[in-house]
Write a structure and sequence with these properties.
Low-confidence stretches: 1-14
Number of strands: 6
Mean pLDDT: 87
Strand order of the largest sheet: 4-3-2-1-5-6
Distance between the termini: 48 Å
Structural class: alpha+beta
Largest sheet: 6 strands, antiparallel
Radius of gyration: 16 Å
Order of helices and strands: HHEEEEHEEH
Length: about 180
């Protein structure tokens, strides 16, 4: 019975179509802790601690990437994108990685619309701990800063085509390509 509880829901034809809480598996598994710490140091370098919207993608085999929208002075915003050319998990010498960074000024309206989208998505996060959806696939993380909650985080794993989460991830990937 315990084994059945650990199997991903997708094996039974059920897919989760909402964001789940961001469980820190690094607390349990030292290799994951080292991976996430090193990856975040590279991906999030030069990112503000108060993102209007942050999107981080951790595929099982493909290169990792992310974007962040930040408010500059006044009513001006910037889109920052970082992506790797190879998957960080499989690198033998992680000190040699050279991420690609792109920055692009964006309109206030665009920034606010994406911030609102992230806020709505993160307001409905299922906070039950430890929902495991699969092993190989792609993990997507959405973050938003707010004064009252600090950093909110939600995640989804390899959403099914046609689902709400698939549409949300598609929008985020289009933002990465826009930069």
């Amino acid at each position: 019975i315990i084994i059945l509880l650990l199997l991903p829901l997708s094996m039974f034809g059920q897919r989760i179509d909402y964001l789940t809480s961001c469980t820190d598996w690094g607390k349990e598994i030292p290799q994951i802790k080292l991976y996430i710490k090193g990856l975040n140091k590279i991906l999030l370098d030069n990112f503000s601690e108060k993102p209007l919207a942050r999107y981080v993608v951790r595929p099982s085999f493909d290169p990792e990437y992310c974007f962040q929208i930040e408010q500059l002075e006044g009513n001006s915003y910037i889109l920052k994108v970082t992506y790797l050319r190879t998957n960080y998990w499989y690198l033998k010498n992680r000190d040699t990685i050279n991420p690609v960074r792109v920055e692009k000024k964006i309109s206030s309206e665009f920034a606010q619309n994406i911030g609102t989208l992230f806020e709505k998505a993160l307001d409905s996060v299922d906070h039950r701990p430890g929902i495991i959806e699969g092993i190989d696939g792609v993990e997507y993380f959405l973050y938003k800063y707010s004064e009252n909650r600090k950093i909110s985080c939600g995640r989804t794993w390899s959403p099914s085509k046609g689902s709400k989460m698939y549409e949300l991830i598609d929008i985020c990937d289009r933002i990465v390509n826009y930069a």
